[in-house]
Prior knowledge:
Oligomer: single chain
Helix content: 25-40%
Shape: elongated
Structural class: alpha+beta
Number of helices: 2
Radius of gyration: 16 Å
Largest sheet: 4 strands, antiparallel
Amino acid sequence: MPRATLSIPPAAEHVRTARLVDDVRLAVGETVARAVVRCGAGAVAGDVDLVMRDEGDRFVVEVTDASDPAVPDADDGVALALVEALVPEVVVDGSHVTLTWPLRPLIA
């Protein structure tokens, strides 16, 4: 199974980086769970697609499902509210959600 490893110096200023990893994981998990629920509610058999991109100045995650974009969320938007609290930029277009984190240049 593929894996990614993050190594950080043992300094207090790098703790935020480790916490950001947890925020990304939680936000992506909630977004994928929302997609799964939407597909289940609409009896949709299509896949949930997850695309992650490093665009140099930002990290972008896109989650798309095959549900009807007009279908409302079964949880009244609670999952998206949590995601919006964790992610600086969230764009929701029905069954397509884009999460964006700006990347700061590394300090040498």
